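Hi all, posting the design record for the shared folder.

TITLE: backbone redesign
STEP: 1 of 1
STRUCTURE INPUT:
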């Protein structure tokens, strides 16, 4: 059995081709504008408040929605649904299992994966969104279910709006591939 498992790890598929300079340029522009907008709101508008607008999982979302725009994992349904469902699950896990952070973290991520797969909203950064709800700062914990709306929902919508614009400027790019 171990030999079978190890034999599966040898790969076998060819590495994908290198991305062209134009793709790299537009991916960088999108990432800059998307994360920049969310960061600006976080530090300029919400600075000095207990509200948070930027979370680490948005960096991974930026890679997908600006750099891997054809991926099913980068489509609007996955971006928005994956983050929102995962945020709800993360907050619920933290609140139900409070005081048991390792268990809450494991439950939040595992359930987020399962629910995203069940609802066809798989977005890998959603796992981080669920985890942040559990291991985040006291400011994140104080938000409770508001975490689902701000920063998660609003931040994802802002990044999506920018992806819809930036990814459709060049003739060779089209986003999204599908909505639902």
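Okay, here is what came back for every position:
SEQUENCE:
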């Amino acid at each position: 059995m171990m030999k079978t498992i190890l034999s599966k790890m040898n790969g076998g598929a060819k590495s994908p081709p290198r991305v062209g300079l134009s793709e790299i340029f537009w991916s960088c522009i999108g990432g800059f504008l998307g994360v920049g907008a969310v960061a600006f709101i976080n530090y300029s508008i919400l600075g000095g408040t207990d509200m948070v607008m930027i979370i680490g999982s948005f960096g991974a979302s930026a890679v997908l929605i600006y750099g891997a725009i054809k991926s099913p994992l980068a489509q609007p349904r996955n971006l928005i649904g994956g983050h929102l469902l995962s945020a709800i699950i993360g907050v619920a896990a933290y609140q139900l299992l409070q005081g048991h952070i390792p268990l809450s973290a494991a439950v939040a991520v595992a359930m987020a994966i399962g629910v995203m797969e069940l609802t066809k909203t798989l977005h890998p950064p959603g796992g981080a969104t669920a985890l942040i709800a559990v291991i985040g700062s006291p400011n994140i914990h104080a938000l409770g279910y508001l975490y689902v709306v701000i920063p998660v929902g609003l931040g994802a919508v802002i990044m999506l709006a920018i992806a819809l614009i930036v990814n459709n400027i060049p003739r060779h790019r089209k986003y999204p591939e599908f909505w639902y």
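COMMENT: The two ends are 40 Å apart (CA to CA).
Let me know if anyone wants the other runs.
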